[in-house]
Design goal:
Elements (H helix, E strand, L loop, with lengths): L16 E6 L18 E6 L18 E3 L6 H8 L5 E4 L2 E4 L15 E4 L3 E4 L16 E3 L2 E3 L8 E3 L8 E3 L2 E3 L4 E4 L5 E3 L2 E3 L4 E5 L6 E7 L2 E3 L6 H4 L7 E5 L2 E7 L2 E3 L6 E4 L3 E6 L2 E3 L6 E4 L2 E6 L2 E3 L3 H9 L9 E4 L14 E4 L2 E3 L5 E5 L36 H4 L7 E4 L2 E3 L2 H4 L7 E6 L14 H9 L3 E3 L2 E3 L3 E5 L4 E2 L1 H5 L10 E3 L5
Parallel strand pairs: 3-4, 4-6, 5-7, 6-8, 7-9, 8-11, 9-12, 10-13, 11-14, 12-15, 13-16, 14-17, 15-18, 16-19, 17-20, 18-21, 19-22, 20-23, 21-24, 22-25, 23-26, 24-27, 25-28, 26-29, 27-30, 28-31, 29-32, 30-33, 31-34, 32-35, 33-36, 34-37, 36-39
Antiparallel strand pairs: 1-2, 37-38
Keywords: Lipoprotein, Signal
InterPro entries: Beta_helix (IPR039448), PbH1 (IPR006626), Pectin_lyas_fold (IPR012334), Pectin_lyase_fold/virulence (IPR011050)
Protein name: Lipoprotein
Amino acid sequence: MGIKRRHWAWAAAPLTLALAATGCVSTSSAGAEPQAAPSTSAARSVARVCAKPAAGPAKAPSGAVTVDPAVVGDLAAKTKSHPPNTTFWLRPGKHRLEPDRYSQVIPKKGNSYVGAPGAVLDGRKTNQYAFGGTARHVTLRYLTVQGFVAPQNEGVVNHDSADGWVIEHTTIQHNSGAGLMAGARQRVRANCLRGNGQYGMNAYKATGHVSGLVVEGNEIVANNTDDWERRRPGCGCTAGVKFWAVNGADVRGNWVHDNRGAGLWADTNNNDFRIEDNVLEANDGAALIYETSYNAVIRKNTIRRNNWVEGRRSADGGDSFPFATVYLSEAGGEPRIRARTDKIEIYRNVLENNWSGITLWENADRFCNSPANTSSGDCTLLARHSDRCARPAIATAPLYADCRWKTQRVDIHDNRFVLDKSVVDCTVKCDRMAVLANYGTYPDWSPYQGERVAEAITRKQHNRWHDNVYLGPWKFVAHDPSRVLDFGQWQGTPYQQDAGSTFRARDGG
């Protein structure tokens, strides 16, 4: 789990506040000035939830049980003593649980928890979890949940990833671990997920997978305050939101900004995502990572000023890898896996002044049953079982194809890529668009050694850029990191990318 991208061995072979956003549709020829049609403007709403949270009811809803902040443990006790499908109304004030670290609320099926204006559930840096258990169809609205100390990779709200929860108009902030976990058919709407130690939300089930997830209209800001990637390098355990083995997700209309690390990260056997109408900005790392996963639509997002910290750190460290703001790592379209699309389609997005653009990458040494697979124990959704991906069978069809997570069938079109180096403040390596792989070397029984994967991702796996608009001094990387191309070379033989696109190499610096 997590990204491993540096195995080169190339020596062997050569919702409320409208902010402006710009969209484009390109039909012009290469080298021409962008025309009016590609630069029409559209309004993009930002879910400014944290500054202006919605207020809950000032009086208890009809039939609701009132919870008193003056009584320590009142919420957990009344939950235990009342039947399923009960609504609890939390009075204004700071509510506390019993001081034992495991004294969390255990809802019953169909329970609802509604906060009055100013209702706060505070863990006081003592309690690990706020709401846990396996009850389905629990609802939280208009609460603030803060000060809980969940361990790494565990969550504060819906700690046990129960199914069918609805979390709306709730502020989940300043907790350790993940502010929120996700179960199947969970709805996460119009919340403030702010300043949590690891994730704003971690969509993960210990058994099975999360399906039918909706993440809509949330502000997801300043998470990973504990800087886990620094504490455990390569752990792949941070993001504003991290998705693991989610089958079917709609991520729309969110404002994902100023997170330490990536904004959104889908890692390991996710499928059928729609990521649309979001504003992803000023995250230290990539705006979006889609890794060892399948079938997604990424459209109509505004993506700006991301990856400045991690991109610069990588470049300053001498790494030639084009780690971009939208990063697809061993992820592609697969018609044999049921989804609303059979490819990864990236279109009608605006990418402005990020550290690099879109990188399509495939690690030749990373496949099911390989010791170089950082998602250890996981296999592809096609092969499913690691013991099948062994010699000699892996060297022949169908396992030669099915044991790999492949970056294939990626269609990148009608996007607008803007780079002004006076804004990004870089001289080199922040201007890359790339499709590449490494030279396969490991393990010694791998059938993917040499340039096979690099040739496949670049020329054989139907990865295509077309009808985009480029403003700024963009460069292009194909096949391997040593092949840095200008726009003419990128469009020409043998790569033949970006047909119908426009390119104006202006630099505002």
